[in-house]
Design brief:
alpha+beta; single chain; binds adenosine monophosphate; 31% helix; 3 helices; HINT; HIT family, subunit A; HIT family protein; HIT-like_sf
């Protein structure tokens, strides 16, 4: 089988180009973070590098340092914002692993003792809730 390649029409590439809306919480030259529209818990945030790669397997290693520096920054901010007990950080590679959007991304999900994750790519959250949560995370990141 030929190696799977990057498709620049994937939904996160469109978000990066501003072609479709997102609830953004952080942006710099290399990285964008925004709310997952089907959160597995309140405050579920995605962090993506701006450089195109399908997933971790084909990524240029130089994109990973800046990406994970922001994963840590956002993980700290969501933990504080939502008063979480912990934070799950997840990243999927290829369909067999559960990947559904083929632009490298890292999931950050606040966790609470005894509360299971909601299903992956489950129910769409109300835009006003996503906007409110994004605002809270942006505020925590600016402190
Ligand atoms: P993965 O299975 O790791 O590829 O997960 C893709 C994630 O993207 C899922 O958690 C979806 O809920 C989320 N998602 C899909 N479309 C959008 C979108 N337009 N904006 C934000 N998150 C999205």
């Amino acid at each position: 089988m030929a190696d799977a390649t990057y498709d620049s029409n994937n939904i996160f590439a469109k978000i990066l180009r501003g072609e479709i809306p997102s609830h953004r919480v952080y942006e710099d030259d290399a990285v964008l973070a925004f709310m997952d529209v089907m959160p597995q818990g309140p405050g579920h945030t995605l962090v993506v590098p701006k450089a195109p790669s399908r997933n971790l397997l084909d990524a240029d290693p130089t994109t990973l340092g800046p990406l994970f520096a922001i994963v840590q920054k956002v993980a700290r901010a969501v933990k504080k914002t939502f008063g979480a007990d912990g934070v799950t950080v997840m990243q999927f590679n290829e369909p067999a692993s559960g990947q559904t959007v083929y632009h490298l991304h890292v999931h950050i999900i606040p966790r609470f003792e005894g509360v299971p994750l909601k299903p992956h790519s489950g129910q769409m959250e109300k835009p006003e809730i996503l906007a409110e949560n994004a605002g809270k995370i942006r505020a925590a990141l600016s402190n």
